[in-house]
Amino acid sequence: MTTVTDIDARGMRHCETTALGVLLRHQGLDLSEPMLFGLGSGLSFLYWDGKTMAFPFLGGRVKPFDLTRNLAGRLGLDLLVQETTSPRKAWGHVTAALDAGRPVGLQLDSYHLDYFRSKVHFGGHVVALYGYDDHRAYLVDTDQQGGAVSVSLDGLARARAARGPMTARHRSFTLTAPRDLPDPRGQIVPAITACADAFLDPPIANLGHRGVEKAGRLVPTWLQRTDHPERDLPQAAVLMEKAGTGGALFRNLYRDFLAECTELLDSHHLRTGHTLYTEAAGLWTYAATLIARAGETGDQQCLTQAGSILGDIARIEREAMRALSRLGGEPPA
């Protein structure tokens, strides 16, 4: 059996930040999950509905792996990414790192992981791999999935080889921190303003604050959008609240990031953003509750109310991001 030593196998709420936490703590850098998410400019919004989709999808963060790339660039980390179409080469990439004493991040399809209780294809799932033997691989996943877990080597191979939306070609990655690691506090303002600017100026109407507005208009039509509202609407609500989002479609994580930042920086704009995201997070959870109730009861009024709340959220988040985009341009308090 090969196992990387000194692994802090701490499961967190979200998969990518969980894996990043494992890799960075092994490098001696221990940041909170909200700080990892915020420094990676992870917050976003997507309303996604296509002709081949059974039901619309609401996403609350940037594309899979963008958070990792953002964080590495911001902190000056050496990010080594390896991809291949060959399962044999892919496993060689992983074992070489593990044999050298380094944990590895993997992007894969969670459907094939035997410890997952909910079997839904999601090709953007990320885990940290820290050991293997002849039969099983040893991973760190979210706290919800068990934290330190193991999976059969066959299941891991299928998860890595899967094709479909958001999948990657056997993607694995390692992170190396430089000796002169910059103080993460110095990267807070660039991370926040980059996130705010992207949210305020999305390239298409499905993204950012425009996407939230669009969701507010379309969610009231969801009972007519599906032949199985009793299944699809509650599942959409679960994805918003419990599917590795940290609750409130990642808004709880961003709220907590901003709260942590207010203890490090004295900024009126930062405090305004935190106050507004605290309000928005509560409304996201209420909207999810209404969406689930609509599916369970068939009550159209629940969706009408959820749509109205999403309209309010779009306004609140737009106001919050406008305040946060002004960070760095204010005089010292």
From TrEMBL:
InterPro entries in alphabetical order: BtrH_N, DUF4872
Superkingdom of source: Bacteria
Record-annotated Butirosin biosynthesis protein H N-terminal domain positions: 14-142
Annotated Pfam families: BtrH_N (PF14399), DUF4872 (PF16169)
Signal peptide residue numbers: none
Domain DUF4872 residue range list: 155-324
Protein name as it appears in the record: Lantibiotic ABC transporter
